Amino acid sequence: MTGNDIVEIKRLLDEDSLYIHSLIDLAFVIKKKLKDKSLEFSSLIEPKSGHQWENIAMMLPYLSKKLIEENIDRLLEGFMDLNWQGSRVLYAYLAEMDIEILKPAFSRTIDQAIKINDSEWVYFLLIFMKDERIDLSHCFDAEIQDCLKYLQDRGIEF
């Protein structure tokens, strides 16, 4: 894959609200590039543009589950700010993931957010874990307690 191909894929991902058929077509191009190892998915996950996040999030159902699982920690960077375009789409997608994949990924991501002292990221991860619509709080007891303690120690109410 040439540098121009990667630039073109990223340019398309930056477009404002790709039409669903264009998004699916791009997902097939990306899948082919991933299969022949001419592209690394993680190189596409860059929180530079809200549209890029949104388009990648919208593309998730058309990519392999294995690929998503391998890149879950990077995708959780989308929770650094729930106001980012695409973070709500990611939110809904992750709510349907296997808890055996999701729980350790959240644990690692919470540890990372605490390590870099990013209270907003911790806060937004906590919102997801405690969301009654998702109904997974019972699966995240330890992670929720870690987040609450971290926020409380910084005088942040949840």
UniProtKB/TrEMBL annotation:
Superkingdom, natural source: Bacteria
Protein name listed in UniProt: DUF5071 domain-containing protein
Upper classification of the organism: Bacteria, Pseudomonadati, Pseudomonadota, Gammaproteobacteria, Moraxellales
